[in-house]
Amino acid sequence: MSFVRLSFVGLFALAFTACNSNSSTETAQPPAATATSSLASPQPGAPTGKKRLLFFGNSLTAGYGVEPDEAFPALVGEKIDSLKLGYEVINAGLSGETTAGGRSRVGWVLRQPVDVFVLELGGNDGLRGLPLSDTRRNLQAIIDTVRRRSPSAQIVLAGMQIPPNLGASYAADFKRIYQEVATKNNLVLIPFLLEGVGGDRRLNQPDGIHPTPAGHRIVARTVWSVLQPVLLGEEGMGVGG
User: Which residues are catalytic?
Assistant: First the structure.
């Protein structure tokens, strides 16, 4: 992502923060995760005959401002269904979520075991200038919880970047968190979730932060390029670059 695009995104950072300033209250009663495949969301403990792929994130995962079937998790689910890979795709995104909120919510979401867990959190932390040590600690706690609840699950970490409004050093350190956390935990890494979308007026809603349906289609392709080998069990499932 170029400096120009980062700067453009930065113009809307304060508006984004204000719109999501009540995230701490949103996590008090977590909403039910939404199944994005053709199947209805199963009751706890009900066998479906399918493996479970869960997307856990903030408004980007939740599909803020677009229809549920236009958000990237649903588009990935359509791809999975078309290939008959035998996965149920669940969207557990929550608008305004921080890593701290995710840390408190993840146990509730994982009442049922999962086979693949896609972790997309941290963007709100960075835009609000929260301590990077807290972001790192919360991401690690979420990963630890997933491994306790679903020991065999494959975890995919979605990397994020922020504009240099809070200083180039903070932005660089924020970006570095994802690679370091992925390396430490031997996770599959999506280097930058919004690659090719962040900062492009044509692919973002008026707030300059949330992708349009066209933007989500690009995000879905980015996610799929990393996720496909995981689902197919191919080699090359180590940490991304």
Answer: 59, 207, 210
